[in-house]
Structure formats: structure tokens, C-alpha cells
Amino acid sequence: MDGPSIAGIFRPVAQPTQAGERSVTLILESPDLSTIHDLGTYSVFADPDAAAAAQPAEEDAGDEIGFLKEQQWKVEFATAEIEQRKLRASVTATGLIKARKDGEALVGAPTGGHLLATEAFPRIGTRVSAGQPLATILPRVAGDQVDVASLELAVQRARSEYEFAESEHSRLKKLVAQRAASARDFNEAENQERLAKAELAAATKRLARYQRTLGSEGAAESTGIQVRAPIAGTLAEILVAAGSYVEEGDAMFHVVDTERLWLEASVAEADLGRLPDPRGAWFAVEGFEQTFAIDPDEGGQVVAFGNMVDPVRRTVPLVFELPNPNGLLRVGMFAEVRVWAGESVDALAVPASAIVDEAGQDVVYVMLGGESFERRVLRLGIRDGDYVQVLSGLEPGERIVTRGAYLVRLAGASPAAAGHGHAH
Where are the alpha helices (DSSP H) in 141-269? Predict the structure, then answer.
């Protein structure tokens, strides 16, 4: 044969010429490898009838489950040796992932006006630093005139009023010189001219500022009011649209710092006696296979433990702070929490992923050989994160299926899946 019939599978075939007990040794030699494998002793029979007669009766064949290497390699499958671990007893609670009190900010509009539309307008999920500009507001001008045509009309009206006031001032000045008008009328005309001139200057400035703002982003920064992030974090919500009009105080952006979060657990009144001084916890979130730990040695800490029992729910809040380095946790997630209670114990433990619930029984599958497994019913103790204490059913050093245990169970339920005596 030029190559394997199945990728990764090699089937050397030995054909003994005489019956009897034979020792089998596999020797592999190549330019880069030389190894010897002792495969044990096997019985060689003279013919098929003699081999069939030597097989044990079906009821004596044992409870081994066959799960072939070809099957194992095609699925997510893994085994591990059970070992002693430090486990901590815990109290069950429900919890909610929240932002820290100083890690959340709702940014409001400092003034009313138009929210300028720029290419740099932020998006949800954008990471921002403290003080970073988020948007620019063009403030509302006098009389709610916020378009160029209205501002130009205001300039023309102010200029016309100024020219009239200037002309009236000049006319009264001549009349006063001819003693044809009173000094009071002259002073009033002079005052009206100054006011009209000031109004014209203000209207002209408003128009120029608005035109510069619409003309370039740089001008907007100098004439508009910038809205900045008060804290570093991630934009969780954007409550306004670019180009829209906002009133003073309108909510615009919701910034949340997700690098460190709070877990608010609700501890039942009946369990308070078991938690005199809680220090840590572990919790599970739907959609994640792994659990998350709040350990003081890894940056977790207790923020507060309530002193009052909720009169309706009969629970007490327990708030933890924890790091979120990979950003896996999101604000608002619901968590099943286990608050550590008491000292840790050394115990034989198995991964929770290895346990299969079979009609209320906790079952694991022990590896007897490369392709043979055995079903074991366990009596379990405390669970701490991803591991569960084994009180009975396993011995130290045994190897169990940690991934794919349910597939081994299916193989045991199907007579056609038994595949004993497979050759490699």
C-alpha cells in the first residue's frame, strides 16, 4: 500500500503461520525516528471456529464501551487524568453584571443647538479616553435663527437700521447747529446710532461664525462647543444622530468602562449565616462554557455587603468588583453565582464538562484502553468553578473523558458502535 487508507490511520496487518501465544512488537524506523512498541501477547487460533469457541459468553463480556479512534479524531474529544485539587464550598446566589459607579457616565448636551455631522462622529463600541471630544454643538443663535438665510436677513435689517440711525443723527446735528432742534433729540439720535451699530456688528459676527462652521471642521472646533467624554471607556449607547438638533440637558452618549465591572449578587436570607466574611466567588454566564472567578489574588474584591434584607425578595446584596481583561463580560448579563464559604479542602475532583446527567444520575466515562471505556456512576460533593468533588466512584490516577462524554454514551447505547478488536 502506497499510503494510509484513511488520513492519520495506519493498519499494519500481521498474518501468523502457527497457532499459539504470540508476543507482538511494533518497530518504527525512519531517518528522523526510531521507536519500539511492545503491544503485548495475543492468542493465535488455527481457524475461525476455534477463535469463536474461545470467546466468552455475551453475559460475561463485561460492560466495556467501544469508541474507535476514527470516531474520536472526527469530533471534539479529550480525556484527562483525575487528580486532587483545592476546592471551596459555596453558597448559591443570583447576580447581575453592572458598571462601576465611577465607571459609567451619561453625557448630556451642555447647550441647545445643532449637532454637527462629521466623518469622525463616534459609533457604538468605540473606545474613548477621558476628555476625548465626542461631538460638536453649534449653539442656538438669538431668536432661534439657525439658517444662513435668516442670519443674512438679520444682517440686512441691522444694516438698514444703522444707516437710518446714522442719517437721523447727522440730520439732527445740523438742526441743533441751526437751533431748530433740541439737544435732547440729538442725544437720543446719537444713542440710537450706537445701538444700531452694535446690533449690526453682532449680526455680522453671527453670520460669519455660522458660515465658518459650515465651511470646515477646524472652524467648527473654534466656534462650536465640544462635548467630551468624562471618563475612559466604551460607547455603549449613542442617543442622538449627527446633524440633529438637541436641547440643553438632552442625553447624548452613554459611556461605560468595561475593564473592571461589578457583580451584584443577591444572597438569600437563609444563607447569611454561612457567609460571615465573604471574600470571593465564582459565577457562570449563559453562553459561556467556562466559569469566571472573583479571586482577591487575581484582582477581585468585595465592594459592599448589605446590612438590610429586602422585605419582598428576602435577599441581601453582595457587590464584587472584578477585572474583565478579555472584554468577554457585558453590562447587564445575568449570572449564576456561587459565593465562597469556609476554608478550602483537598479533594479528588473532575471537570464539570466530564459529567453526564443520565436520568438523575451523575455519570462519567472512564478510559480503559485506547478505544474502550466504562460507565461509572459518581457521588459528587462541592463544586468550585469548573471542577466538582468526587466522593465515590473513581480512584486517583484513572483517566476520564472530559470532552465528548455524551458521544461515548451514545456509542454504548448502540450495539453497532461496539468495535472491539480494532487494529491500528
Answer: 148-177, 183-215, 217-223
Q: How many domains does the chain have?
A: 3
Q: Are strands 260-268 and 315-323 parallel, antiparallel or unpaired?
A: antiparallel
Return the higher-pLDDT residue of 384 and 58: 384
> Do 142 and 49 belong to one domain?
no
List the grid coordinates of 286: 449563559
Give the cell for residue 45: 487460533
Cα 205 from Cα 140, distance rounded (Å): 14
Residue pair 148/210 in contact by the 8 Å Cβ criterion: yes
Per the structure block, which three cell numbers stand in for 78?
479529550
Same domain for 272 and 196?
Answer: no
User: Could you give the CA distance from residue 294 to residue 351 in angstroms, rounded to a whole number?
Assistant: 19
| Beta bridge partner(s), residue 292 | 283
365 and 300 together in one domain = yes
Whole-number pLDDT of residue 284: 93
The model's pLDDT over 213-259, given as tens digits with 9 standing for 90+, comes to 555 444 444 457 889 999 999 999 999 988 888 888 999 999 999 99
Question: 95 with 19, same domain?
Answer: no
**Residue 8 banded pLDDT, cuts 50, 70, 90:** low
Strand blocks (E) in 239-280: 245-246, 251-256, 260-268
C-beta separation of 260 from 327 below 8 A = no
Burial annotation 10-43 (CB, 10 A radius, 16+ → b, else e): eeeeeeeeeeeeeeeeeeeeeeeeeeeeeeeeee
Task: Identify the domain containing residue 117 by its residue range.
Answer: 104-256
Q: What integer is the mean pLDDT of 291-311?
A: 92
Smallest Cα–Cα separation from 115: which of 140, 142, 151?
Answer: 140
User: pTM above the 0.85 mark?
Assistant: no
Contact 341, 91 (CB under 8 A): yes
DSSP β-ladder status, 301-305 and 315-323? antiparallel
Identify whether 150 is part of a domain: yes
CATH number for the domain including 130? 2.40.50.100
What does the alpha-carbon distance between residue 328 and residue 360 come to, in Å, rounded to a whole number? 32
Q: Are 402 and 48 in contact (CB under 8 A)?
A: no
